[in-house]
Design goal:
With about 130 residues, the chain is an alpha+beta fold. The chain is about 15% helix and about 50% strand. The protein contains 1 helix and 8 strands; from the N terminus they run αββββββββ. The radius of gyration is 26 Å and the shape is globular.
């Protein structure tokens, strides 16, 4: 009878320890930042320092608006994708819809920052830009 009692006690302790380990409360993590929203910053051509205004309104439906003057309505529209922390988009300006532009940037959620390059055509190699989320 003592053997059965010892086995029962050991089994009970083992089962109890598994229960407490599996029910451990997870740390509360902040919700992940999203890319959608209003972004403002600067762009530059070639190797020039970004100094000209550049803004996006990124929508969660895969589209975005482009502004090249602060406080002005959108001057272009485009579509975007996100793979990992890499934002890629193509857009055109309303006044010149035949000319396509592309952007590719790293999304830093912690800093609320997009930093990358832009270009005329499919390759974003005509300059750089940096934006922060507003």
């Amino acid at each position: 009878m003592k053997t059965l009692n010892l086995k029962s006690t050991v089994l009970f302790l083992l089962a109890s320890s598994l229960f407490f380990v599996s029910c451990k409360k997870d740390k509360d993590e902040p919700a992940p930042a999203t890319i959608d929203g209003t972004w403002e910053g600067k762009y530059g051509s070639g190797n020039d320092e970004p100094t000209a205004f550049f803004g996006f309104v990124i929508k969660n439906d895969g589209t975005f608006l482009v502004s090249d003057e602060q406080g002005s309505p959108a001057s272009g529209t485009g579509t975007w994708t996100m793979t990992g922390n890499t934002f890629k988009g193509t857009y055109s300006y309303t006044a010149f819809p035949i000319i396509k532009y592309s952007v590719e940037a790293s999304f830093n959620a912690a800093e609320g920052k997009l930093q990358g390059s832009w270009g005329i055509g499919a390759t974003p190699d005509d300059g750089s830009f940096v934006m922060t989320k507003k």
